[in-house]
Design goal:
323 residues; single chain; 21% strand; alpha/beta; 7 helices; 7-stranded mixed sheet
Length: 323
């Protein structure tokens, strides 16, 4: 272990943070080639002399995040499983912003109990763009990792990200929500603006304490595309929705925890075909509408206290057991 600096496992997967702008003005992932340092790491070395760190580099795949698949998530899990994570002070994973919330939710569940901090790193613009937030996001992750090492160790999976208001926020991976259309800002239930001192960014008082397991191992997984996400809208045609190959349905609700009455017939069809249908968010004790009570009578399984992305990933990882 490096006694004076940090030892970081960098996993590069692509995304805007790993792109360069071509002559035609389009963003494309730079192919690193054997022996060539990845673009994000080259820029970090140039612009962030502190904190000092050594880097082990892995590249399970390089892809723009809109092209993410379950196969990519399996490759990411396999990459992590091959590493002795306790040999590192922290893990940094680059990722695109489009599907960041899904991968964050996935890793938040997969790496539950990981003894070292894991950070997902994204950017709204390529790192070479002066207006990119990439360097700020990475600096925060590195300095929090340094603080973790110096203060006895912290654990968990996080996203550090600077919004347009200029603040760098710390998000728990399992709470991150997708960006709103047309926006580059990320939000989460418990997001906290980070404070930077002379020594660097510091952990908020109520987060970052270590609850990692010394014998933690990344589990072997196999993901099947058998969970369907549905969002209600006016005029929704449930009769056009096929359940072939589907094991579970995750149905979001309107803001008052309601959904179209037509959902009742769909729930009956789910029941007859052995498909569980979860409705989110829904707390039965707090529902104020008979509509929602009727959905539960027709077999809907209410869940709450988690994002859609997190519930989806929990269902995928749980397999036949469900939530």
């Amino acid at each position: 272990m490096n006694d004076t600096g940090l030892k970081i496992l960098f996993i590069f997967t692509g995304g805007t943070i790993g792109t360069a702008v071509s002559e035609d003005g389009k963003r494309r992932i730079e192919e690193h080639g054997e022996g060539k340092m990845p673009l994000p790491l080259r820029i970090i070395r140039e612009r962030l002399p502190e904190p000092d760190f050594t880097a082990d580099i892995r590249e399970p795949y390089l892809v723009l995040s809109e092209h993410m698949t379950l196969s990519h998530l399996e490759k990411l899990a396999a990459c992590l499983r091959e590493e002795e994570l306790t040999e590192y002070d922290g893990v940094m994973i680059t990722h695109g912003s489009d599907t960041l919330a899904f991968t964050a939710a996935f890793l938040g569940e997969l790496l539950r109990g990981c003894p070292v901090p894991v950070f997902l790193l994204a950017a709204q613009r390529p790192m070479e763009d002066p207006q990119s937030n990439a360097v700020d996001n990475i600096r925060a992750a590195l300095e929090l990792t340094k603080a973790s090492k110096e203060n006895g160790g912290c654990s968990g999976v996080y996203v550090t990200y600077r919004n347009d208001d200029g603040a760098v926020y710390l998000h728990k991976a399992s709470e991150l929500c997708q960006c709103r259309p047309g926006s580059d800002d990320f939000f989460s239930e418990g997001m906290q603006a980070l404070i930077r001192t002379e020594a660097g960014y510091v952990w908020p008082e109520d987060s970052g304490r270590s609850d990692g397991l010394k014998d933690f191992r990344v589990p072997e997984i196999s993901l099947k595309p058998d969970v369907l996400i549905l969002h209600p809208y006016v005029g929704m045609r449930y009769d056009c929705i096929s359940l072939k190959g589907i094991r579970a349905v995750l149905h979001t609700m309107y803001h008052s925890s309601t959904a179209p009455k037509e959902l009742e017939d769909f729930l009956d069809r789910c029941s007859s075909e052995g498909v569980k249908c979860y409705i989110l968010p829904c707390v039965p004790e707090e529902t104020r509408y008979e509509t929602t009570t009727g959905l539960i009578r027709h077999g809907a399984v209410p869940i709450s206290g988690m994002t859609v992305e997190s519930a989806y990933m929990k269902l995928l990882l749980a397999g036949e057991q469900g939530l």
